[in-house]
Design a protein that fits this description.
Blueprint lengths: L1 H7 L7 H6 L3 H6 L7 H15 L3 H9 L2 H8 L5 H16 L2 H9 L3 H5 L9 H14 L9 H16 L4 H14 L7 H6 L4 H9 L3 H7 L5 H17 L6 H5 L3 H7 L5 H17 L1 H9 L3 H5 L8 H15 L8 H14 L5 H14 L3 H9 L3 H7 L8 H11 L3 H9 L2 H8 L5 H15 L3 H9 L3 H10 L5 H14 L2 H9 L3 H10 L6 H20 L3 H10 L2 H7 L8 H12 L37
């Protein structure tokens, strides 16, 4: 038997196939159980290791003969050199295809292999082999280890190996972790079988290895560095902010913030990305990242020679720092963020300035912050972006609408930046979402004073605004009805008369009666005030007869008459007053009108335009 072993362990080419065909392998495996002869066990293990180091068919022949069980039994040997040889053999077999890998796992290899990792294990060579074999076992994409095995057996062992001072051991442990979360390389059948791949990510984070991986990113060992970076990238790819995973990752934020000053672009890019993912998860995690001091080193990455790719990542993370969760970032943090965001919205890259605009949109929630944004000089650029062919217009438009809301001074500033002609162009776009945001901004301006409403008139915004109310689907009409009502209740007679001239009465009546939203009574009252003011303006312009004829021809009397049966006590008198004042004739019994009187027995109707409340009406 020793002679056969010596033949197989020669440095020259071994006659492996001859011995396999002579049915020698089963006898070699049989003698592995001779525990009273460790020298023989060692020589047999070496011989079998040489065979499994050959071709796949040669390896499979050894496995089919029952070698794996024999090698597993040797893992418990009291002689470290024998256990070491068995570990190497199992690692080679595990590396040689998923079928053999699966067989090793099914033979119960993992537990005795992990048992070799002990605090008092002094053999670096043995630990290197164990770590290498574990990394090979983890690469099986067709029969992945169960989450229980990973969490309770494998990860504690890998965490121990990861903290070794030996670079080869650490590199193999990193490789094993990388295989565990390399979900993209699994077969389609296994992907379907793994119902919750995020469980592996959660298990890895819970194992407490992230801080060590971050520390390894400053390693001078290329293999260790590359594997650590790869794992962190894979982890962040799977992070689910809504599942608390990113929050668990937040304990490492100080390490990632330190890495922002790295000279390695890949490390900086990864650190920027991870910090953005953590900040996105929830308000607490975002606030902790800010507290740890992310803003200054992050902003320092914005330089004239910064690559577009890195600048895009930095902008994305800044956006996540601004994102509204339960509350905005603190005012001191916002004051740090504003200047750089103002700088970024002037960038030539579409994605960068669009992301910066979204960040500003998030920040413009409180009046104090809005004023600081205005003071930073951002208004002209936001308005100019509305004329940008490639820009995503939603964020600039929404930010502008919040700037003009409830402030005459800020509205004047936006108007002086030339927004009205751009709004007129946006109202005739084909994109309904852009039209919605444009109308929303018009509505805010229309809630201002007569001079501000006149800016809309002068720049031809009114006609396309009425067209929106007339032609778009019902779901998009709300903001247009609000804007027209604001003009009707806040403009002068000439401005209100334009609404009639451009045909606002019919679509406004239609909208009032067709909307089915709950709690609509209050807004119907406001809209009826707007309609009454339009009719009153037409009367002052001596156009009342023409208006009455127009309304009757369009069948709008029936629509207004429906409101007489409305449940709300305020709607009946207002609709009755409109019908009685502008459309009632002698002998007209269509509605069997019953006078609605005040305490003085006279119906009191205000023919002067009503003033819109500050900020406009909310429909």
């Amino acid at each position: 038997m020793l002679d056969a072993c010596k033949i197989l362990t020669r440095e020259c080419e071994s006659p492996i196939d001859i011995l396999i065909n002579a049915n020698v392998v089963p006898r070699l495996i049989e003698f592995l159980s001779r525990v009273n002869n460790p020298h023989l066990q060692l020589e047999l293990a070496r011989a079998l290791t040489n065979i499994v180091s050959g071709t796949f068919d040669q390896t499979k022949a050894v496995v089919n003969a029952g070698a794996v069980a024999g090698f597993v039994s040797l893992l418990g040997s009291s002689h470290p050199v024998v256990a070491l040889q068995a570990v190497r053999a199992l690692g080679i077999i595990a590396r040689d295809g998923t079928e053999l890998n699966t067989h090793i796992t099914e033979q119960g290899t993992l537990n005795p292999l992990i048992n070799l990792i002990k605090p008092d294990t002094s053999s670096t060579t043995l630990l290197r082999s164990v770590a290498w074999t574990l990394s090979n076992l983890c690469r099986n994409e067709y029969s992945p280890l169960s989450i229980y095995t990973i969490r309770h057996q494998l990860l504690p062992a890998l965490a121990h190996l990861l903290n070794s001072n030996d670079k080869e051991i650490v590199a193999s442990a990193c490789m094993a972790l990388s295989h565990l979360i390399d979900y993209d390389n699994y077969s389609p059948a296994i992907k379907k079988a793994i119902k919750n791949p995020e469980e592996r990510l959660r298990a890895i984070i819970d194992a407490g290895v992230v801080n060590r991986l971050v520390a390894l990113l400053v390693s001078n060992e290329e293999d260790v560095f590359n594997q650590s970076l790869l794992i962190i990238k894979d982890i962040t790819t799977w992070l689910d902010p809504e599942d608390g995973q990113a929050e668990a990752f937040a304990s490492s934020t100080s390490g990632f913030i330190f890495l922002l000053s790295s000279n390695n672009p890949d490390v900086v890019e990864t650190a920027v990305w991870v910090l953005g993912v953590v900040a996105e998860s929830n308000a607490e995690a975002r606030d902790e990242v800010i507290k740890q001091g992310i803003i200054k080193p992050l902003v320092s990455l914005i330089k004239p020679d910064t690559s577009v790719e890195l600048l895009s990542d930095v902008t994305w993370t800044l956006f996540k720092l601004c994102k509204y969760h339960k509350h905005l970032p603190s005012v001191p943090a916002v004051r740090q963020l504003l200047p750089v965001l103002v700088q970024l919205i002037h960038n030539d890259d579409d994605d960068i300035f669009d992301t910066a605009c979204q960040a500003l949109d998030f920040l413009t929630e409180g009046d104090e912050i809005i004023q600081e944004l205005v003071d930073a000089g951002v208004v002209p650029r936001l308005v100019a972006l509305l004329n940008h062919n490639k820009a995503m217009l939603f964020s600039p438009l929404n930010t502008i609408s919040k700037i003009v809301s409830g402030s005459t001074t800020r509205t004047d500033l936006v108007l002086s930046a030339g927004i009205c002609p751009l709004l007129a162009k946006l109202l005739v776009r084909s994109d309904m979402l852009i039209i919605h945001y444009a109308v929303k901004t018009v509505s805010k301006i229309a809630a201002g004073n007569v001079t501000q409403i006149q800016a809309l008139v002068t720049n031809n915004v009114i006609r396309p605004l009425v067209d929106v109310l007339s032609n778009v689907d019902f779901q998009w009409q709300k903001q247009a009805a609000r804007a027209i009502t604001n003009i009707a209740c806040g403009g002068n007679v000439e401005q209100i008369a334009l609404l009639y001239e451009f045909g606002a009465i019919a679509p406004l009546c239609t909208y009032i009666l067709e909307t089915k939203e709950p709690k609509r009574a209050k807004t119907i009252v406001v809209e009826l005030d707007g309609l009454a003011n339009i009719l009153a303006a037409a009367e002052k312009m001596s156009e009342c007869a023409k208006v009455s004829l127009h309304v009757k021809e369009r069948g709008l009397l029936d629509r207004i008459g429906v409101l007489l049966r409305h449940d709300d006590i305020k709607i009946h008198p207002k609709s009755l007053a409109i019908l009685e004042r502008y459309f009632s004739t002698n002998g007209d019994e269509d509605y069997k009108l019953v006078p609605c009187t005040s305490q003085s027995s006279n119906y009191e109707f205000n023919t002067q335009p009503s003033q819109a409340p500050e900020g406009g009406f909310s429909l």
